[in-house]
Amino acid sequence: QVQLVESGGGLVQAGGSLRLSCAASGRTIGRYALGWFRQAPGKERDTVASISWSGGKTYYPDSVKGRFTISRDNAKNTVYLQMNNLKPEDTAVYYCAARSDYYSGIAYTDASSYTDWGQGTQVTVSS
User: Could you say which of 41, 42, 80, 109 is the most buried, measured as most Cβ atoms within 10 Å of its Cβ?
Assistant: First the structure.
């Protein structure tokens, strides 16, 4: 099991940028697929971005494509989410997640595919 701690959330005006970090401990993330998810009040948890264990494959839903970028630094045991051109509808609690992956090498898109979760960090975008 890997422990995950998110940071970098906060309040930003529409059009601004934030960079979220998720630091892992307990295991090295080299053979883990990683993902970012968000949940707004009263709504389901949605996928924001995911990345394969090698970093060679990524996934973004249309709602964030071209604005958000997921990346990983295995040496630092950290995954990042760069968020640009933020919109009020991006307001949510953002979570990172991990799952071990030795064979498939895919960017898992569904929250149910992940086994380890962080506590979340709040992102608020004002209009």
Answer: 80
Instruction: Determine how β-strand 10-13 pairs with β-strand 46-51.
Output: unpaired
Block residue for tokens 């709040």:
122
- The contacts of residue 73 (CB under 8 Å, 6+ apart) are 79, 80
pLDDT digits (tens, 9 = 90+) for 47-57: 999 999 999 99
Instruction: Name the residue among 32, 45, 42 with its Cα closest to residue 4.
Output: 32
Residue pLDDT, tens place only, 2-54:
999 999 999 999 999 999 999 999 999 999 999 999 999 999 999 999 999 99
**Which of these, 82, 92, 68, 100, lies nearest to 21 by C-alpha position?**
82
